[in-house]
Amino acid sequence: MPNSFFSWVLFLLDKYGALFLKGAGVTLLIAIVGTVLGFIIGLGVAIVRTLQLPPQANRPRRFFLGVSKWLLSAYIEIFRGTPMIVQAMVVYYGALEYLGLDIPALGAAFLVVSVNTGAYMAEILRGGILSVDKGQKEAATAIGMTHWQMMTLVILPQAVKNTLPSVGNEFVVNIKDSSVLNVISVTELYFMSKSAAGTYWKYFEVFFITSVIYFVLTFTITRLLRLLEKKLSGSDSYTIYGSQSHSKAEIKIQQPH
Amino acid sequence: MENIIQAEGLRKRFGQQEVLRGIDFSVKQGEAVCLIGPSGSGKSTLLRCINLLEQPSQGRILFRGEDVTRIPPARLHAKVGMVFQQFNLFENLSVLKNCTAGQVAVLGRSQKEAEGKAHQLLEKVGMLPYRDARPSQLSGGQKQRVGIARALCMDPDVLLFDEPTSALDPEMVDEVLYVMADLKKAGLTMLIVTHEMAFARDAADRVIFMDEGLIVEDAQPQLIFEQPRHERTAAFLRRSMRGPLGLKQLT
Prior knowledge:
The complex is a heterodimer of chains A (257) and B (251).
Chain A: H1 5-49, H2 59-81, H3 84-98, H4 105-131, H5 134-142, H6 147-177, H7 189-200, H8 203-233, E1 240-241, E2 252-253
Antiparallel strand pairs in A: 1-2
Helix pairs in contact in A: 1-4, 1-6, 1-7, 1-8, 2-4, 3-4, 4-6, 5-6, 6-8, 7-8
Chain B: E1 3-14, E2 17-28, E3 32-36, H1 43-50, E4 58-63, E5 66-67, H2 73-79, E6 80-83, H3 95-107, H4 111-124, H5 140-152, E7 158-162, H6 170-185, E8 189-193, H7 197-203, E9 206-211, E10 214-219, H8 221-226, H9 231-242, H10 247-250
Parallel strand pairs in B: 3-8, 3-9, 6-7, 7-8
Antiparallel strand pairs in B: 1-2, 1-4, 4-5, 9-10
Helix pairs in contact in B: 3-4, 3-5, 4-5, 5-6
């Protein structure tokens, strides 16, 4: 048997390396699926919640939109107001005991993380949509765009770009918080670590390895997202080369990249 | 000449406050009409009612004899263009795309056709070298010239200007006024809310003076500026033409 901290770490890595890797893979998969689906859910919710009917809209439409908005805000409040670990239990065992549905644990994980993330994303994206100044909406209306054209061509691209830091943050949160899914036996990193630790009763050594893996995952993702943000924000200046002294001089343009 | 725009008994209320209190006027084909008057007199609201950015509370507005509330929004907005005080360019799109997006989405033009039109109009306002720039990379005057090109790309029958130079630094005002004077020469029908009195006097066919939600005077520029019939008009013009007070007068 190994007799020091480092020899234990090496021993455990050698013995359970594949297990750690598989756990990290499942964690990453849940975080990616949950964030992407959550983003789509959140986007849909935010679009409906920021809808405004024209003053001549009829009563059934008004009523329908009112009810939808109420339901969506109930969804957001409930999923932001309860812990994800509890949501996982309720969904997994609720489906099993009351609907007779034995959903695979990984499927339940995707569902819970997506819907949970969707509630946060909805608020993030609603803020993003409202932050685009009213003037641009008026300009879009004034050249005859429909509400849908205005949203897809002008508002949403800006809203999504402005909220990218927060969206990336949700992704990092999901990498870490998917660990609570061990309660429904999803084979993610934390669950795998627990089973590895149990065999030799080496909790500190195993979870030391686990924390390093989590950190590498989140740190890499954070850097990648920052790079993407930088690329999307583009340059602040547009250089045209001309004569300083004679403003009518011919100008040549260098494309910004 | 045919009336492009005509307002009949137009009223607009915001809650308790009545901003427009019965407006009747018309703009004929090829006319450049300037709307002047003190802040809060309802000039901008009047302009915004014409293309339905605000809903009139009472009365009606006709575009070529047709009630604007009955015209399909896409057609009305394409035919009645608008230039904004704050430019309101689409910040996520390049200068060129700002000019083509509406043509493709609203008029159903092909990308190529839209780009041809945009090139031609950006050239006209002197902004073609900046076609790939983003709005955030432009100065105020440049943004406003793009705003004008964007509106012209829709082939409007009339262009509404809502204080197009009020948000500009003084040295950029002229470049925008030049463009507007050019459009006037080309025979475009224009309705312009402005505080540029010299421009109103020299470039307009008609000047309308508004105060407290009513049209006080509607006449040729020489008459308004040289022999105003109402004391309110005269007082407003004295204040506007004098310019800001100097330090001596203030102390």
